[in-house]
Amino acid sequence: MSGTTATDERGQRRTAVVSIGAAIVLVALKLGTGLATGSLGLVSAGIESSGDVIAALLTFFAIRLGARPADEDHPFGHRRAENLAALGEATILIFGGIIVTVEAIRRLGGGGEGFEPAWYVFVVIAVALVIDLSRVITSVRTAARYHSAALRSNSFHFAGDMAGSLAVLVGLVLVRAGFHQGDALAALLVAAIIFAAATRLILENAQVLMDRTPEQARQRAERAIRALDSPAELRRLRVRESGGRYFADVVVSVPAGQAIVEGHAVADAVEDAVRAELPGSDVVVHVEPRRRGLDLRDRALAAALSEPLVREAHDIAIFQTRGRATVSLHLKLAEDLTIAEAHAAAERVSAAIRAEPDVEDVLTHLEPLERPVAAQPVDAIRDAEERERISATVERLIGTGPRELRLIRTEAGLVVFVVVGVGAERTLDEAHRLASELEEEIRRDRGYIAEVVVHTEP
What domains, with CATH codes, occur in the chain? Predict the structure, then answer.
């Protein structure tokens, strides 16, 4: 358990323990005074507070259970124990409300005797109001700080207690003024408050347990994802709440040609955006290739990379003739495949691309995937001469020497890596043509050169 989590649990437990102590005091004050004086209003308030004792105990144990980390049997944690505890508290409130209602109706029907409230009854109500107010403030603040459903439900109870105490106070004032049914009417009002609080608890926590989407949280997460400067397209967003913590399940699509590293970066950006809006959330992002809104080249690339035997696809060219397209592409496959297996894979790719609208034909070129090439020992003298000749060629063609030049000798021949600078205002197409021309010049009259790689930079 992390230090922050342990501190949070201690803070919630401390609040729950204080609530238990306060509830016991209120039960002794209200129920004891009510039974001693015959005030049904005070008895009803005492019953509600006695229910709070059990409710506070449930909250205490629910917080301890909810603080346990996720495990194999509970992968989303144990925090819904707080929601179950809240439902238990609502059940207790309902039973207490029924008892109070039955007795109040009996008294209003003439089956009970009135009473004359003594001065100390008003003192008890005043003390109860002060305790209830302090409990409401403490529980609301603590519930908001720790996102605790159980403590939030306690704050509803305490607010109901305070409203009930006020109702009892009004009833006692009416009795003192000569309206003897005021106490029973106050008891009915307390019962109504009890039923209202219980109904709210049941509705709120049942929705959480039924995985109803917290709409405001979902909208905030969706806005955060759509605001990203990213090629990702939101396909699905599911948000659920458990014990004040959000769990988000996100599906985004990215262009099919993106590397897995780029897709992972997109997923990280989505996770960060959701957590920024919903702190402490558990976010799972699934990335899948996009199928809609792509041009023909990207759709052809997606079809090629969807074939399990194809390792790479490149040199995709599209030839348009009277509104119909011919697609040409190179496919790289494992070198140990038979030509029959490679041809079958190419036919599957071709069929997938031909299924695209306005595609007339598909031409494929099959290549084996390159194996690592063993380099030969450096020949310092020959390499120095070769460097001078290549540098002279580069300077003659572009006006300046290479920024970087590297030679590697292999069994297949000499491999040349050269870096040259071009004007920053040039287009990529112009730089590519210059690199191709430079490659041809370096190869000219040098049959021993196996490959030339030219990198252009501003």
Answer: 3-209 (1.20.1510.10), 215-289 (3.30.70.1350), 296-368 (3.30.70.1350), 380-457 (3.30.70.1350)
